[in-house]
Amino acid sequence: MNNQEVEELLYLCGDEKRIFWYFKDKFCLDLIALDAERRGAKTLSVRELKQSPYKKYLDKPIFSELSKRFPSGVVNTEDFPLFYPYEQIPFVVTLGKWQASNRYSNQTTRKGANLVLQLNFDQQHTRKYVDLVKPTYDFGPFEYWGHPVYSGKYKTLAWVRLDVSFSTNEVLIEEIQTDWIRRANSLLTMVDRRQKQNLTTLPNYKKNCLSGSFEEIRQYVAVELKPYQEIWNEAALLAAIQFVKSELGINSIYYHSFEQGNVLKNIIGKPPKSLYSTLAKRFCFSKVQHHPEMILTTQKIRKNLKKVGAPNWYYMSV
Asked: Which of 42, 65, 77, 139 sits CB 3.0–4.6 Å from 33 for a disulfide?
């Protein structure tokens, strides 16, 4: 996408906040419901699920509850929300733009800009973070404003970069990433190391960023942040899929494989491999041997495609 296309899309989508609720493995129910909607099916049987790519989800605890409530083995997908747990984690979803000054910094497949979906903490969690970590500056120690995070009152847990093509009815997921989790875990590791050395304070360059005690930092990272550590990637990907389907009205979603994505996006430092393999497989993306049409437009991309050999993409139709 070029800069104007992203700006127009941001205008059309509006800047109102979107509330997104999540609990562990919610994506299993929602993906099954999306697939049923795509096929025009209102009910599903356990037999059908056992013969589908989603059969691995039947071992999840939430499906044991479904079996109890529907002994006939047939369930209406509209009833899935009845099995959501009482306690869910609320997020605020916002939209932004990513465009760096050069392709190396951009890490985009096509030259230009990306639409960014930002998964932000709710205000209750943000208050806990402020009370315990005690950040010295507005942007805090766990976020980096050089990345596509929300630069306002919301704190961004994770983001998803999207390349959108309405002409080909395709979305390419360029990246799913978090600074918050990585930096918080790094800080806790530093605290543990300092305590083993019988030191009671952080190094000066860290003390300039926050004033929380070791005990407060541990309480935040090991306790308050723990539920988010377990779900951040699946929550971000599900939020992106639902946004693409419901707000963009696009049905074809592509997702980079690890090795191919590194080449096409000109990535030098390698990202976590699990985000481009394990996560896609958990979401039942199919492996396909054809390229998204949107990227076959320039000589530079076609040259890079020759470097990766056979096409190797993850694909989902919603």
From this structure: 77
**How buried is residue 58: exposed, middle or buried, by Cβ count under 10 Å (0-12/13-18/19+)?**
middle
- Please give, one letter per residue, the 3-state secondary structure of 34-100: HHHHHHCCCEEEHHHHHCCHHHHHHHCHHHHHHHHHCCCCEEEHHHHHHHCCCCCEEEEEEEEEECC
Alpha-carbon dihedral angle through residues 85, 87, 88, 89, given to the nearest 10 degrees: -160
| pLDDT digit string, tens, across residues 121-149 | 999 999 999 999 999 988 889 998 889 99
- Residue 37 backbone phi and psi in degrees, to 5: -65, -40
Claim to verify: residue 16 and residue 30 sit in the same structural domain? no
Of 185, 229, 192, give the one whose Cα is nearest residue 214: 192
Q: Where are the alpha helices (DSSP H) in the chain?
A: 3-13, 26-39, 46-50, 61-69, 103-106, 123-133, 180-196, 204-207, 214-218, 226-229, 232-243, 258-264, 278-282, 299-308
Strand partners, 18: 93
pLDDT of 101 reads: 58
Phi/psi of residue 9, each to 5°?
-70, -40
* Interatomic CA distance for residues 166 and 252, integer angstroms: 10
Q: Which domain holds residue 64?
A: 26-83
Q: Is pLDDT at 104 greater than 60 in this prediction?
A: no
Is the model's pTM score more than 0.90?
yes
- Residue 65 sits in the same domain as residue 187: no
Does 295 lie in the same domain as 151?
Answer: yes
